[in-house]
Amino acid sequence: NLRGRGVWRYSQAIAGNYKKIISINEGGTPLIRTRTGKEVYFKFEGANPTGSFKDRGMTVAISSAVNEGYKIVVAASTGNTAASAAAYSARAGLRIYLVLPKDKVAIGKLAQSILYGATILEVEGSFDIGMKAVIKLYKEMGLVYPLNSFNPWRLEGQKTIAYEITEEIGVPDYVFVPVGNAGNIYAIWKGFSELMNLGIIDRIPRMVGVQAEGASPIAKAIINNQEAPQFVENPETIATAIRIGKPVNWKKAMKAIKESQGTAIYVNDAEIMEAQRELARTEGIGAEPASVASFAGYKKAIEQGWVDRDNKVVMILTGHSLKDPDSMIRSSARRIVVNPDHLENIILGDLN
Ligand SMILES: Cc1ncc(COP(=O)(O)O)c(/C=C/C(=O)C(=O)O)c1O
User: Fold this and answer.
1) Using CA atoms, how far apart are residues 339 and 17, in angstroms rounded to an integer?
2) Residue among 99, 242, 248 to mutate when testing ligand 1 (max atoms within 8 A of CB)
């Protein structure tokens, strides 16, 4: 029984020749069944040490950097890769430089990156400008180790989401994944494919990528049956974690979607914010806007009729709600200034 915490119990093969493993007991996250009783589940990656699925990949990538003797690591990020990279670098004693889009990172993630001691380099414009700068930097400076998800070690950790789902409920019909830089949907597909190649399962789920309408190059390429996406110069969405116009892993993501007979769709900001509220107020689960894109996408698929309520479905909730407090405060709050001596009036008023 491999259940429990720590991605490494799955990746022992990788760790075989590793002398040092950097782990904060990531993985082993809750698979929460919807209260409707249907075979519909939420894989809550907000339960990871820094509150997102990124920790699964970071334990492998940072351990790889340490075992290969690097002392300096870098990452461009919309926030969660930053928070996770900063935590694991701190644990490994590595110096980390984060390249973030100025004023576009949700406050929780920026706060984490500061707390864990990263050097934060802020660029004007989108995440993609930072991503391009990091690729240029690591090509010019061999002494820096890149942590973004074109680094295959990241995906070797993130694929364990598939292992955990299969262990608990077998193979779903569909897995809904929010898509930004597009590494995670490929990693999860890779995990299921490996289990099938090993004969542990006899089919893999249809992978459904969900993007924010204002940052949906992959979804639009799939919908329009194009081989390659049209990159988005100025991606815009309230779901800042997936405000990415030029996904570095677009080829891998489209392979995963096609080979699994899946698809990719987009949802707008209003649908994302409605999904965040509904998830919190009906299921008691708090997830940040990009994270609930998977739920918004599922709702749309049910509405459009190509997914049935009796299908076995898993939605990956990729990040905790506390990452983006601003998004929560915008929800329809019920806040009443009261006379503390007469709280009963409010409740009686509601009951009448
Ligand atoms: C909550 C949340 N949900 C979904 C995604 C998309 O995953 P990918 O498609 O694998 O990129 C991200 C990605 C964040 C970053 O890319 C970053 O932190 O730099 C995220 O934080």
Assistant:
1) 65
2) 242
